[in-house]
Amino acid sequence: MQRELVERAQRGDHDAFATLAGATIGRLDGAARLILRDPERAKDAVQDAFVRAWRDLPTLRDPDRFDAWLRRLVIHACLNEARRLKRRPREVELSPIDHPSTIDSEHVVADRDEIERGFARLEPEQRAVVVLHYYLGYPLPEAAAILGVPTGTAKSRLHRAIQALRGAVEADSRLTAAPEVPRP
Amino acid sequence: MTGQADFDRRLEGWLENAAPPAVPDYLDELLDRTRSTRQRPAWASLERWIPMQLTMPRQVAALPRLAWLLVLALLILALVAVAISTGRHPLPPPLGPAGNGLIATDVDAQLSVRGADGTAMRLLTPNTEVDLLPAWSADGTRIAFYSFPVREVGPTCGSAAPPPLCDSPDQPDGSLVVMNPDGSGRRVLAKDIRFASPSHVLGAPTWSHDGTRLAFSATNDDATADMRVVRLDGTEEFRHASSGGAPTWSPDDRLLAYTMPDGVYVTPIDPNATGQRVSQVSGFVLGFGGPAWTFDGKTLAFFAGAPGSNDVYTVGADGQGERAMAPTVADEYNPTWAPDGSRLAFERVGDANNDIHFVVVNRDGTGARALATPLLAAGPTSWSPDGRYLVGRLVSADGSSVQSVLLVDVASPDRSITLLNGDANISWQRTAN
User: What is the pTM for the complete model shown?
Assistant: First the structure.
């Protein structure tokens, strides 16, 4: 079904492309917001990637690789945006959750602050590998291929990201557990 | 300790909640843009017309077989020359100040060595594996590190396979390896070492001072951790199922100090021995870090406290005479003794701007001096073998990451040297003066 849509879109059928875009943009927009931590920048990156996808779609050799190809375009658009951001740092809080989530709970809400702080301190490249692995569900070799880096580099980035996230969560957990006492 | 699976679920849950996948309100705007964009014709793609091999970046020029043999021979000659030249050097004493040799790093998960000025980098391991946390032996003749294979995408690692079944960071597939300073003579000493998982972060392996054994802490499948000691022939001498971390050798190599959730412990290298808690500070929920032995083996430095309010302490190896070293309300951690044992350095987070700087204090706690360095990021601290430099990490302008690894001149902190850009673990080779 998707292959047929991709082939139609490759032949210039914009309705087919709109169907593909509607089916994929939700998670890719989420990934971009996680990596860039700024909904407006994420919107810019996702729009640029989709415009490029539409423009270059006829040159895609294997229609079955559409999903991976599109995700690669979005991730690279995000990293390019982040590089521009680096020159003009601007940290913006993630927008409040607009949509009710089936897995939200008191526990998750409590986690948000802990992980949020650790996640905010990661480099965009580290956030990208975390998002690819944990949010988009890619095994590391494929995440590395999408990022265009050796698997070892992706593994190293994920290692450091997990170190940092783990440290932030444990630090907050211990802070929460510690009662107020006079300092020695 | 939070379980690995639990942390995975929390992280995935947080990601889903922070960015729930939903069709954004700009989809129509986006489709208007694509509708007005002209598609590139298929023939515009180079790959459509000529074999892919010709459009891919060329890897290595095909050399005649004879040329390859010549290159190989030259390489072997170079390695032999290095081996001979390093072999001629007298060895440093196992304790105390020594000369500054090469610095080993794990930049991009590849081990390399370089001079203290950051130049003359030489790669020691291939980029087809993940190599982390180098540690020079005290005599500077070997490097220990963790090595993890990189798995290729295979039948069980296709896009349909969920990450835990494929190349996941928690696979128990790593090894503790030692090799010579030129990368030759690799030997696996221990296997089944987990990559950093959400429930455990590997610390660098530590060498006994006589260079015959290595201690490290590794996570098991059930997320508990074992302290292990292995000999250079690969046999295991000691395994302590205590979840202890950061094992460090006493100067006589008879004892290990390590951290537990409730304090700093010392144990003989004996499978039947029970560790004794030597830290005394208690009374509230603490985390412990360090420890570091003085080279007379009489005193240990460590840090303890809740996150954001740690203090550095010293205590006798027998648990007597514990004292806080230059305590303030600021967060202080990562103590490390100067090679001659006369001073202790640690990191302190400033009260005002959360900037981090080094503090150097005399062994008796007097003369605390904050070093005027650029803004630092938290990270492992160590001295150069000659006691001139402290290794620090320069924080990026927006405070979000490590910009570079610095060598901070303790006598003239304003004359710091940039060792490398980005972050990496480093270990400094000791040489004879």
Answer: 0.58
